[in-house]
């Protein structure tokens, strides 16, 4: 019987992180955890299956809002489980592919972005179902602003050639943790989710504005560099 061979976390981290830059607060322990897990995922579990698990986590979170709205607020605890499941699938799908040397860079990139967007939409709809009146606009605003952040991420990748899923010190993992804490707080302090979510949405807007300004500066610098290169080439040809 073939014995499993496990590699050091340091070596695995190099393999699974070579296609992206991470700047989030929890990148150290998160990468070590992922490096530990990718070596222990059963061989029959594919990256696509892990993506499906991630989406199911988003569905669980959506259902937690619905059940909390119509049955009991304690069902919001189910949303915390949903985010844990979402993290597991979303964090491991591409990393498992790289570890197994079966990565499909552009397919995986496209599928990951689609799954992430679906997850955000499900969470936003769940929030709208849970709250009432004008507070529904907070859920809609969060989805729009998170979509803005995703677009900024894609444009940054186009301009720099480097893919990062983080916005400064915050990444998807930190967002999941913050939202999970908001759900727990709501169970004990009814309607706290309204005010905390509003605050988070304002912060997200500010972060988007800052990231967009940085993006536009990079784009402007790249245009200037391209223009200078064209001018230098013209001078050479004229000479």
Distance between the termini: 72 Å
Helical proportion, percent range: over 70%
Structural class: mainly alpha
The stretches of 5 or more residues where confidence is low (pLDDT under 50) are none
Brief write-up:
This protein is mostly helical. It has helices at 9-16, 27-38, 47-70, 76-99, 105-130, 136-160, 172-188, 192-238.
Describe the structure.
- The protein has 239 residues and is mainly alpha-helical.
- The protein has one domain (9-238): CDP-alcohol phosphotransferase transmembrane (TM) domain (Four Helix Bundle (Hemerythrin (Met), subunit A)).
- The protein is 77% helix and 0% strand.
- It is built from eight helices and no strands.
- It has helices at residues 9-16, 27-38, 47-70, 76-99, 105-130, 136-160, 172-188, 192-238.
- Helix 5 (105-130) runs antiparallel to helix 6 (136-160).
- The chain is globular.
- The mean pLDDT is 85.
